[in-house]
TrEMBL record:
CDD domains per record: NT_PAP_TUTase
Sorted UniProt keywords: ATP-binding, Magnesium, Metal-binding, Nucleotide-binding, Nucleotidyltransferase, RNA-binding, Transferase
Name this protein carries in UniProt: Speckle targeted PIP5K1A-regulated poly(A) polymerase
Biased composition (Acidic residues): 658-670
Cofactor(s) of this protein: Mg(2+); Mn(2+)
Biological process, per Gene Ontology: RNA 3'-end processing
Domain RRM: from-to ranges: 79-151
Any one Gene Ontology cellular component term annotated for this protein: nuclear speck
Length: 794
């Protein structure tokens, strides 16, 4: 007799076995309890408040219909085959006739877009097993690849359009960050808000599997390997899908096949992969993408890139991506970044924060008004270099990682040593105890005054090297950031001097902000604080409010008021000229903060017509009759002193972020204000139009096209004419602009131009601001004769 605790024998009566007890509704495998009470049906995505409601739902028609549909789909999957390898143009009837030899065929579903594969459904599961038991299949002289149809989780029919998740808007991101308790919590939260969701990762995995399936048909033995942002630990919503098509095994198989008589014809029959040039390989890969991969469009080979690629986009997932055929170093760079992210929990929050900050400041990405900018890879390496140079270091140098690598980790690619441990557990724990928020503040402080062009940032050594130590093959530039493995590659070689200067300038402004209470303390009045304000373009400049953007314009000092271009009124007049005459903005005098001061001398601004009506006699919407800007001063200037050299008032002690911000604004001199409108996208396409105008210049004109501001005026006029001479019904942008004095004494004098958009700033205004931030200072220097100030290459 069984003395255990297992179930006893089933009770049998004259009427037969007793019916099984009915399970409670919450025991249904499709049901899950909710944290705050109640239940949720995962199948139907329906919540029920209590057990009776749940039982009623489970008996309802909707739930029963979905259960029946799910059972039917699973039965179909267990009877179906995934078939590929047949010739293009093969009819469904031909496949049905072939597989009819194993049992009755219920349906054949062909890939409608490319015709690269088919799903063959048989009536009986045993028929499928007989087909799978046969080792080889062939149709019309071509080998077929036959495998079981993949069994997928049942997805409830939904009116949605795929698994693509839209990223958070700027307002949503700011609102989410402001709920955190401190900056460290904000940085941790930022990672969760920006990184890929599990659904997005799964979608990318399925795309890689699809590419592997298709390319294996044409390149037997090949591997499709993801690298870059999708898998390096610093992924973000919408990042590109970078893929490496490894053809080395295929080249070996092709070489063997050519020596074997009777080899079957394929797409590779007329191409020798071992001797094919990179452009030929790229065109071959592009042809497979266009013809055979479902959902792929906009395929374009780029053989002239540093690493030649084939670009593509995928319709259903809304993803863009690249495929390269000779970039194995990228795989090791990807693994290195992932190792660093796993080595210390502070690495990823710092990397995400710096990358988003740089993007919002127009230093990274591809905003409409920018030139060559920092890539996400370069910014991530900059963060890792910074962590290597802390005392004590947060991360080890690559040279130290090479010492820790085991025999199985040693690898050389294209002559470069890429050896490092694959497991972060093998690394020595860091003795550095700085918090993530402190590290972020130190990052800005260190790089605010860093000599980017005079030294080489070496992740291999974990220190800045003198220029000669970088080697003769290393390409020097405005920022010298050495790849951790390919030591001849400067990953920031594309960055211009202007962008390098802006990086230092923005780091200095951010470093100053990080010393303030507004960074360290949560606002009690609902204002942006911590990262939320740091990420706003121009918001961390002194005097910038929560909804305003600041442009800092250095003023050469000392300058005499009598010297041309030296007085503050002339500076305001120069700003007026650039906004109105060069960029074709509509402007009107703004409301002064105090009583009107004396009218400014020099160039004045025109009035902007009310209501958006086109003014007479000017198709571009610019008034002929000029009006002066409203000017005011918070305190009178001493006699004989130029405004740019005004002494600063002694700053009182403050005890809250709000008081600190208010006191900071009091240090400045409001001297002029304007109400501005932007009617045309004058910040887009300027580089191309500038080249066209220079190319079409007559022989007697100077090579630079004369005065650079005259050329910029022509560029703006060409943009206006291209969009249509008539003014649109409403302006694209409206904003208030006010000029302020700052600095003086021992500090560098500067003009702060504050832009306050109305309504709240959107992506269009941010693009305009990034352009103006780079365009205005050099244009003003040229206008006032302060020295070289060539117009920015936007």
């Amino acid at each position: 007799m069984d003395g255990g605790g297992g179930p006893g024998p089933e009770l049998v009566t004259a009427a037969g076995p007793s019916p099984a007890p009915e399970l409670p509704p919450e025991a249904d495998p499709d049901v899950e309890p909710l944290p705050r009470g109640g239940f949720r049906c995962r199948l139907c995505q329906v919540a029920a408040a209590n057990r009776p409601s749940l039982a009623e739902h489970l008996r309802g028609k909707k739930h029963q219909r979905l259960r029946s549909l799910r059972a039917e789909r699973r039965a179909q999957e267990q009877r179906s085959l995934f078939v590929s390898g047949f010739a293009r143009g093969t009819a469904a009837e031909e496949l049905a006739a072939y597989f009819g030899a194993f049992g009755e065929v219920a349906a054949v579903v062909m890939d409608k877009e490319k015709g690269a594969y088919a799903i063959v459904e048989l009536r009986e599961a045993m028929s499928r097993e007989r087909a799978l038991a046969q080792p080889q299949h062939a149709l019309a002289g071509r080998s077929l690849r036959v495998r079981p149809r993949e069994q997928k989780d049942f997805a409830r029919p939904s009116p949605g359009r795929g698994a693509h998740r839209e990223p958070l808007g700027a307002g949503q991101l700011e609102q989410a960050l402001c709920q955190a308790k401190d900056v460290d919590a904000q940085m941790e939260q930022l990672v969760g808000l920006l990184e890929l969701s599990e659904g997005e990762r799964r979608l990318r995995h399925l795309l890689v599997a699809l590419f592997q399936e298709v390319f294996s048909e044409f390149f037997p033995g090949c591997s499709v390997l993801p690298f870059g942002s999708s898998v390096n630990g610093f992924d973000a919503h919408g990042c590109d899908l970078d893929l490496l098509l490894d053809l080395e095994p295929t080249k070996s198989l092709q070489s063997s096949a050519r020596r074997s008589p009777g080899a079957e014809e394929s797409i590779l029959s007329d191409i020798d992969l071992a001797s094919a040039s990179p452009p030929e390989l790229l065109e071959l890969v592009a042809a497979v993408l266009r013809r055979c991969v479902p959902g792929v469009r906009r395929v374009r080979a780029v053989p002239t890139a540093r690493r030649p690629v084939v670009k593509f986009s995928h319709k259903q997932s809304a993803l863009a991506g690249d495929i390269s055929v000779d970039n194995r170093l990228a795989l090791h760079n990807t693994r290195f970044l992932r190792l660093c992210g796993e080595a210390d929990e502070r690495v990823r929050p710092l990397g995400y924060a710096v990358r988003l900050w740089a993007k919002q400041q127009g230093l990274a990405g591809n905003p409409a008004g920018g030139g060559p900018l920092l890539t996400n890879y370069a910014l991530t390496l900059l963060v890792l270099f910074f962590l290597q140079t802390r005392s004590p270091p947060v991360l080890p140098a690559v040279a130290r990682l090479r010492e820790l690598a085991g025999d199985e980790d040693r690898v050389v690619v294209a002559g470069w040593d890429c050896s490092f441990p694959q497991d972060a557990v093998l690394l020595e724990p860091s003795a550095n105890s700085e918090s993530p928020s402190s590290l972020l503040a130190e990052f800005f402080r260190v790089f605010g005054d860093f000599d980017f062009s005079g030294r080489v940032l070496s992740l291999r050594e974990g220190r800045a090297l003198p220029l000669p130590e970088a080697g003769e093959l290393f390409k020097l530039g405005s920022i010298n950031l050495q790849d951790p493995f390919e030591l001849s590659h400067n990953v920031a070689a594309n960055v211009t001097e202007k962008t390098a200067w802006r990086l230092g300038h923005c780091c200095r402004a951010a470093a100053k902000y990080c010393r303030s209470l507004q960074y360290r303390c949560k606002s009690t009045k609902g204002r942006g604080w911590g990262l939320a304000r740091l990420f706003q373009p121009g918001a961390v400049e002194p005097g910038a409010g929560a909804a305003s953007f600041l442009i800092s314009i250095p003023v050469p000092a000392p300058r005499c008021p009598e010297e041309p271009g030296g007085g503050f009124k002339e500076i305001c007049a120069g700003i007026a000229f650039v906004l109105h005459d060069v960029l074709r903005c509509g402007c009107a005098p703004g409301k002064p903060p105090k009583q009107l001061g004396a009218p400014g001398a020099g160039q004045s601004l025109p009035e902007d017509p009310v209501g958006g009506k086109e003014p007479p006699g000017d198709a571009t919407g610019v008034e002929e009759e000029p009006l002066q800007a409203a000017t005011a001063s918070k305190r009178s200037q001493p006699d004989g002193m130029d405004g740019a050299a005004l002494p600063r008032a002694k700053r009182p002690r403050v005890n809250s972020p709000e008081q600190e911000e208010e006191e900071e604004e009091k240090e400045e001199e409001v001297v002029a204000s304007w109400s501005c409108t932007v009617w045309h996208r004058v910040w887009t396409g300027r580089r191309r139009l500038r080249r066209q105008l220079l190319h079409g210049a007559s022989p007697e004109e100077p090579e630079e096209g004369g005065d650079s501001l005259e050329l910029e005026q022509k560029v703006s006029e060409a943009i206006v004419q291209h969009e249509g001479a008539a003014r649109p019904p409403e302006p694209l942008l409206r904003f208030e602009a006010s000029a302020r004095l700052a600095g003086g004494g021992r500090r560098e004098p500067r003009v702060l131009l504050r832009l306050t958009p109305s309504p709240a700033p959107g992506p269009l205004f941010r693009d305009f601001f990034h352009f103006l931030q780079a365009f205005l200072p050099p244009a003003l220097r040229r206008r006032l004769g302060w020295g070289p100030g060539a117009a920015p290459q936007s």
